[in-house]
Amino acid sequence: MLKLVAFLRGINVGGHHKVPMAELKTILTHLGCENVTTILNSGNIVFETTKKDIAGLERIIESAFTENFGFLIPVILIPHKQINELVNDDPFASIDVHKNIRLYISFLKEPSTIKLTLPYISKDNSFKIIGTKNHIIISVLDITTSNTPKGMEDLEKLFGKNITTRNWNTIQKINNC
């Protein structure tokens, strides 16, 4: 069995595209996934599968969600092992975290062709990309000069819309599943 994490983009945010986690769990179970667990209400699902074609499984899940909910829910699947490695590597260990610092992990659906000099720092110095690994982008936002949407705008400008972002606390919760 392969343990995967599904990150869904754009659901249950600001009252748009409301999707009950129980329904997501039911759909994945009907697709043959096992030990399906949802984390929080923002589209994070851990499950096990015998399927090895991750890209194919993403398409199958997206199709099932679209059929059930009537709108596209982009799905990015990441092996749980990669999440575990990321948490164990603790990419934010050198960051001075205080109440205005936000730590983010973003996931790309496709590998990026963008070559950034790291750290990448936004024009207003509020947003930094401090690392990349496989389909993963590691970033830090200082909200004393900007807010989350501005940092997310930078990510989308650099990497496109096939991306979804979670805060570090959520990633740690997912790792514990």
Q: What would you note in describing this structure?
A:
This protein has five helices and nine strands. It has 177 residues and is α+β, with helices and mostly antiparallel strands. The longest helix has 16 residues. The strands form two sheets. Strands 6-7-8-5-9 form a five-stranded antiparallel β-sheet. Strands 2-3-1-4 form a four-stranded antiparallel β-sheet, sandwiched between helices.
> DSSP helix count?
5
Biggest sheet strand order reads 6-7-8-5-9
Tally of DSSP β-strands: 9
Order of helices and strands: EHEEHEHEEEEHEH
Runs in which pLDDT lies below 50 for 5 or more consecutive residues are none
Structural class: alpha+beta
Instruction: Specify the biggest β-sheet.
Output: 5 strands, antiparallel
Q: What characteristic shape results from the CA principal axes?
A: globular
Provide the residue-averaged pLDDT.
91
Rg on CA atoms, Å: 16 Å
Percentage of residues in DSSP E strands: 25-35%
N-end to C-end Cα span = 15 Å
Helix percentage range? 25-40%
Helix and strand layout, with pairings?
Layout: E1 2-8, H1 21-30, E2 34-39, E3 44-49, H2 54-69, E4 75-79, H3 80-89, E5 101-108, E6 120-121, E7 127-133, E8 136-142, H4 148-159, E9 163-167, H5 168-175
Features:
177 residues, alpha+beta, five-stranded antiparallel beta sheet, four-stranded antiparallel beta sheet, 5 helices, 9 strands, 32% helix
Summed up, what is this model?
The chain is of the alpha+beta class and 177 residues long.
